[in-house]
């Protein structure tokens, strides 16, 4: 109930009140006049039979109209989807995929009525990630004057982080922007390590999770962490093996490639070794840096720390599973494109979630 405001409840009550008389009268009519109800049913069957005969006789215009109607309905559904309504300016977050896999109904309520409140445990977890980032990354605040500047800052962070990875073998809080299954997706990798051996130069991804209790999470929560890291690898591998589709980025987010970047962005980019005057310059540097990087390692790692003292509770080392990942992404995209209704989390998974708190 905390997701629904008083105004929204008034709208729901009004809608129910408006439909109740018609529903009541329809039920009463069917009960009191079964013969009349049967006549209406026969009429519906007659209309259905007529429609079938017209289709079976092969009226090509009717078939084409049916296909055209189906296409228009699909376009309308995509245009009104959760993806278009809530992620048209940002792209789909990796956390959107993991959150949808965890519980589609919860994600639906968060989109429609607002996300849940930030808990104390969530604040501690964010503070821990900020501290880990500060250990290896120096933050610089720059002024942004346009939406192109905001995107340029994200691309610049990746370029600087990738340079640090190649020279020092470690970087943290590395942002990723790319296409996954035809959908723009963004995410931030907690930690990327570059092996020192010459025979193995594939970056390794590490994600740090903080825990309130000194216990490892239940299997559904472990699966959520694995899905997150697999999404990062899939996104990374697409970036480094395929040419970055710059024009699709400009078109989807309505970005001007010739927009002049803010003075502070231009200065910091020049100091970092990749001068950029307009937004398209930064995109070209991003595309070039991606082409220099190898695919990520197939072994992925999730570390679980105790919030109280940052002691490592345990680690989950697992292998990348391309088939499982794609099936999970496709299932989640069905929800985001509103190709079907949202599903609820199975009862057993909810019980395990409660037990793991």
Automatic annotation (TrEMBL):
One of its GO terms (cellular component) is nucleus. Pfam families: Exo5 (PF09810). The lineage of its organism: Eukaryota, Viridiplantae, Streptophyta, Embryophyta, Tracheophyta. This is Exonuclease V. GO terms for molecular function: single-stranded DNA 5'-3' DNA exonuclease activity. Belongs to the EXO5 family. InterPro entries: EXOV. GO terms for biological process: interstrand cross-link repair.
